[in-house]
Amino acid sequence: MYVCSCFGITEEQVKQHADAGRCTPRQIASACKAGTDCGSCVRRIQALLGRGEGCATRTKLDTAKPGTPAAPAAPAPASLPVPPALPVPVTAPLPAAASAA
Ligand code: FES
User: Fold this and answer.
1) Least confident of 6-15, 19-28, 63-72
2) Which pLDDT score is estimated for 93?
3) Looking at the domain assignment, is residue 73 inside a domain?
4) How many domains in the chain?
5) What is the domain-level CATH number for residue 41?
6) Pro residues compositional bias: what residue ranges (predicted)?
7) In this model, does residue 98 exceed pLDDT 70?
8) Centre of ligand 1 from the C-alpha of residue 39, in Å
9) Which residue, 74, 71, 86, is CA-closest to 25?
10) From ligand 1's centre to the CA of 48, what distance in Å?
11) Which helix (H) or strand (E) holds 36?
C-alpha cells in the first residue's frame, strides 16, 4: 500500500529503509524523498516507525525488559533545556526556476 503518493513510496519500502537503520521520518525522507513534497504522508510514516514495525532499533527499544535501560542515557547538560518532540518540518521543493522564460 502506498504511503507517499507524491513519490510512489510504499509501506514496504518505508519498512525496508527502517530495517536499514533509518528510524525517523526525516531519515526516511533523506533516503527516498517520502514526505518532502506535500507532507501529507509524514504522519503515516511516523505511525509506521512509531509502532516499531519497520524499525529494528525501535523494536529493540520497545521490547526491552522493564527496568532494563535499552540504551545508556547520556545526561543532558543542566544549562540546556530539553526540547519537546517536534513535528518533522516538511520542506517543499524550490519552485521551478523562472529560467524557463
Ligand atoms: S504524499 Fe508524501 S509528500 Fe505528498
Assistant:
1) 63-72
2) 72
3) no
4) 1
5) 1.10.10.1100
6) 72-85
7) no
8) 5
9) 86
10) 15
11) none
